[in-house]
C-alpha cells in the first residue's frame, strides 16, 4: 500500500521560493507517477503538474510554467516541488498525489494523496 | 483546456436522503478519465469513483457514479452522517488534469 508523507508547514516572504517534499513508502518512486495539487484557503483543487509516463516527461500546468520545478530523488523515494517568486496568492495547502501504470495502462486519477503542506506567503 | 462545472454549489439534505451531484464538461471526456473525490475539512481528498462508475477500494456501495460524454453524476443513495463533505469531479485530457469547483453536501 502506497503512503505519502509530506514535509511540514512553511512561512515565506513574497519573492522567495519554497520546496516541499513528499516521501513515498510501500512502493518505489519509479513505480509511480507523482503529481502536485494545491488548494487555496476555502477554495477548490488546482492541478499544478506531474510526470506523464506516456510522454516520459513532467508536464506543468500553463499557469505555473516557469515558476515551478518538480523533481525526484529515487535513492530516497522522495519527490519535491519547488515554487519560486512566491506571492500572497500562492498561500495554499500543497498536496502530492500519485497515479500508476498498470499492465501498460496509465491510470489517470489520484490515489493516494499526501497529508498536505501549508505554505503561507506573507511579508 | 476542459472546464468542469459542478452543480449545485451546495446541497442541503438530511441523513437518509438521496444526493445527486452533477459534473458537466465543456467538451467530451473519456469515461475512463473521469473521477470523483470526497474531501472533509482539514483532510486530503479521497478517491471515491474512477472511470466514471467504478468504486475505489473500501468505498461503500451507497456511492455510485454514472454518465458519459459531457455529463456525469455522483449519487449517494442514503446519506450517512460521515458523508457530509465537499465532492470534486476530475478529468484528464490532452496531458492535463482539471477539477470541478466542488459541491458541498451539508446537513439540512
From TrEMBL, chain B:
GO terms for biological process: adaptive immune response. Pfam families: V-set (PF07686). The keyword Protein transport does not apply. The keyword Protein biosynthesis does not apply. It comes from the Eukaryota. One of its GO terms (cellular component) is plasma membrane. PROSITE patterns: IG_LIKE (PS50835). Keywords: Adaptive immunity, Immunity, Immunoglobulin, Immunoglobulin domain. Transmembrane segments: none annotated. Residues 1-90 form the Ig-like domain. PANTHER family: IMMUNOGLOBULIN LIGHT CHAIN (PTHR23267). Immunoglobulins are composed of two identical heavy chains and two identical light chains; disulfide-linked. This is IG c1241_light_IGKV3-20_IGKJ3.
Amino acid at each position: 500500500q502506497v503512503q505519502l508523507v509530506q514535509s511540514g508547514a512553511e512561512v515565506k516572504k513574497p519573492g522567495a521560493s519554497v520546496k516541499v517534499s513528499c516521501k513515498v513508502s510501500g512502493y518505489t518512486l519509479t513505480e509511480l507517477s507523482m503529481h502536485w495539487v494545491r488548494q487555496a484557503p476555502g477554495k477548490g483543487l488546482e492541478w499544478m503538474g506531474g510526470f506523464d509516463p506516456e510522454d516520459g516527461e513532467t508536464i506543468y500546468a500553463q499557469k505555473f510554467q516557469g515558476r515551478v520545478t518538480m523533481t525526484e530523488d529515487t535513492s530516497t523515494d522522495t519527490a519535491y516541488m519547488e515554487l519560486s517568486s512566491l506571492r500572497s496568492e500562492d498561500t495554499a495547502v500543497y498536496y502530492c498525489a500519485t497515479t500508476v501504470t498498470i499492465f501498460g495502462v496509465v491510470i489517470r486519477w489520484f490515489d493516494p494523496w499526501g497529508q498536505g503542506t501549508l505554505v503561507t506567503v506573507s511579508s | 483546456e476542459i472546464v468542469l462545472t459542478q452543480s449545485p454549489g451546495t446541497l442541503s439534505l438530511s441523513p437518509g436522503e438521496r444526493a445527486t451531484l452533477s459534473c458537466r464538461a465543456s467538451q467530451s471526456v473519456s469515461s475512463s478519465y473521469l473521477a470523483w473525490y470526497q474531501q472533509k475539512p482539514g483532510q486530503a481528498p479521497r478517491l471515491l469513483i474512477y472511470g466514471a462508475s467504478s468504486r475505489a477500494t473500501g468505498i461503500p456501495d451507497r456511492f455510485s457514479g454514472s454518465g458519459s460524454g459531457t455529463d456525469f453524476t455522483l449519487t449517494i443513495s442514503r446519506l450517512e452522517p460521515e458523508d457530509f463533505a465537499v465532492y470534486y469531479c476530475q478529468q484528464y485530457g490532452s496531458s492535463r488534469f482539471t477539477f470541478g469547483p466542488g459541491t458541498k453536501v451539508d446537513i439540512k
